[in-house]
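Exam prep: given the inputs below (a chain plus MGD), describe the expected output before reading on.
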Amino acid sequence: MTVRKTRTVCTTCHARCGAVVYSEDNKIVRVEGDPDSPRSQGVFCGSGLSQKEIHNDTDGRILYPMKRVDWDPKGERHPETRGTSEFERISWDEALDIITEECFRIKDEYGPEAIVTGQGTGRTTNHWHCRLNSSLGLEGWSLAPTHVCLMPLMLPNAFTLGIYSDCDGDMANASTIVHWGASPATQRSKAKMILDRIESGQTKYVVIDVRYTDLAKNADYWLQPRPGTDCALALGLMNVLVEEKLYDSDWIEKWTYGFDELAERVRNYPPEKVSKITGVPADDIVGCARLLGTNGPTAFQTILGPGCMHTNAIQTGRAIACLQGMLGHLDVPGGIPINVAFSAMLDDRITLWDPMKDPGRSDLFTFGGEDYPLYKVFGRSNDPATTFEAAITGEPRPVKMMVFIANDPLLCYENANRVHEAITSPNVDTIVSKDFYFSPTTKLADIVLPSSDWSERDTIDEELFGGLVISSERAVDPPGECWDDWKFFLEWGKRLNPEHWPWKDEKEMVLWRLRELLGMDMTWEEYVEGAYFKLDDGSGSEGPVYKKYEKGMIRPDGQLGFNTPTGRIEFWCDALARFGYDPLPDYDEPAETPVSQPELAKEYPFTLVTGHRLYAFFHSAWTNIPAQRELYPHPFFLIHPDDAREIGVDNGEWATIESPRGRIKSKAHVTYEILKGVIAVPRHGWRDECKELGLPGYGWDQANPNVLVPSRPAEPRYGATAMRSSLCRVKKGVDFNE
Ligand SMILES: Nc1nc2c(c(=O)[nH]1)N[C@H]1C(S)=C(S)[C@@H](COP(=O)(O)OP(=O)(O)OC[C@H]3O[C@@H](n4cnc5c(=O)[nH]c(N)nc54)[C@H](O)[C@@H]3O)O[C@H]1N2
Ligand SMILES: Nc1nc2c(c(=O)[nH]1)N[C@H]1C(S)=C(S)[C@@H](COP(=O)(O)OP(=O)(O)OC[C@H]3O[C@@H](n4cnc5c(=O)[nH]c(N)nc54)[C@H](O)[C@@H]3O)O[C@H]1N2
Ligand code: SF4
Ligand SMILES: [Mo]
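Solution:
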């Protein structure tokens, strides 16, 4: 057998590094980074390398569709034995027939809204998932963590700056780089470039994070706010910019709306007051503001830390967007690039969303839509906590079927005990889970479906990161009968509504998408051969065009300015005011902190931050893979040395973390990285056993931070939850059984 070499792309995390896979006899023998990748330039990490073990692990993977033996879709369902009864192998045809018949039955009896389809973070099928929902008679995502993931940041950017994105700055050309609640673990391929620029004096560097991150040691300013107070910090930074007139008044006059009102608002936030709210020294606030105001262009990277996972999410996003607007580094090298290229990810031609629908979506039912109107309109999803309550109680409407594709809701969503009740609820007739391995949710499912991973599939990276289409080619055939999610949606969709799904296979879907949405007409061979296709930025010119707002190139109506109702950066935002928000950004203390809940804090004195990312794991996956588990063998939490001393917990010792929602076990990592009074539990949960290393798995309920996190109260109109600011207590030792 000769060794086959295939160039493709790793989709294990969002970095999307170019990969070269060497295989022999359908086994992977070696994986390397692709030096030709314009995204990763040959950088590749340990998680990506583990693809070899994952593909070759035919003992551990789910290989065939399966059905729980005592679950008969035409007879007894026995919901009480979910998780304990055996599975039997069935064919894909049987599985798809059962699922489709269930859908038709439930739609007839209860309406399509009683079917919930869940996905987690984007894993190359956002669009097909949404199209499948349209085939079911639903519109939108059905269930996705968009209430906490990126959207609470993107929406304020859209309302304020007219840019519907996370506004990732052009770090390669910036004079100041700001990482605001963005983890180095998620920036692997960019970290080198940032460090090189810092070292050569080309950029100043600011980190604003509740942890001392790996890159913070290189920072000129490291600001460590109390969790959930970033809105006040942004208002304080703007206070200094305004008081010291560190802004370009002509630009502000010409291109922004509501500056005087904003200036008045930020006068309420002088550095000393902001220092009291946030814990950041006033001198640092002043110094950092001066740096931002005088050493532009500034490239921000803001991800989950400051806003997305707090009950003041939307206003925090607004304050940071206003700060960026005030600095004015928009659509210039080193600032916020504005890419007007049309976004193919959720194009209506794929999702089949109806663009003519009433923007208030009064005709559409979503769980929690009345409570969270901004989420209903822009999140286009059911509110997760309301959905799980409905699954348990049948109120306000029943949930009869849940299909999870690349999502482990027990590890993903807040208040995991309640999610568990929902998944095991006798009111839900059918649970389907499609995954690589038996996740805690898959173990409880009625139908289990196997999945292929990135080296085993012929699909495409749908997110089109950085205006780049990266082709991918199957390097090895998937083990057993593993199907990729594209094929699953195609075959399920054909049964639900064949007109919506005319393609023969995934390759045809890829080529249709390129042709229809991007005007790229090519054969499969040309697509694979071409590897990396740079998309133009919509300006119609060869290189980037800057300051497009001065040229009438941003707004659909061709007028000068930004894509907001006023055509200006909206410091004052009437569109948000219509949803009941203050039209100016303002600070609200998060709902569950020692400040807002002093009584509860007597029992639960620590502020709990959950979810920071680690290099080795992607969400709850890969604690079973030796090369990854070895890096972080045990569940752990960060605790300040003073706090550890007071509780009497030593470094490396087991402890119990409790909240009013439940309790988990974790090992103390005693460190000055974290603020006094704050406990940080990483995202991953250590759910799976790693046999090779003899390390246990902790399932969904033993070490999963979401056991602790409340689902209520949430952000009042969008529903973002308190994943990064709630209360907990810590006790030395563990006194509950595994
Ligand atoms: N407390 C707390 N909770 C959080 C967060 C936090 O910071 N703190 N972060 C939130 C965020 S931002 C997000 S996006 C969500 C993410 O949540 P999810 O994306 O749902 O992540 P998981 O819960 O790990 O579930 C994903 C499952 O999909 C499987 N999988 C991976 N790739 C594929 C694939 O291609 N096909 C199939 N069929 N299966 C696949 C994995 O093995 C895993 O079991 O979590 C959210 N939950
Ligand atoms: N390795 C790996 N990479 C991933 C993922 C993964 O699971 N593993 N998940 C992917 C997904 S879906 C997402 S959405 C992204 C998330 O990407 P990021 O948001 O960059 O990553 P996080 O580590 O979740 O959070 C960023 C930082 O926020 C800080 N933080 C927490 N609370 C606060 C606060 O109140 N204020 C401030 N200023 N900082 C705070 C944390 O300490 C952390 O360093 O990562 C993606 N990449
Ligand atoms: S897991 Fe590693 S190799 Fe794969 S895309 Fe992410 S950073 Fe790149
Ligand atoms: Mo996410």
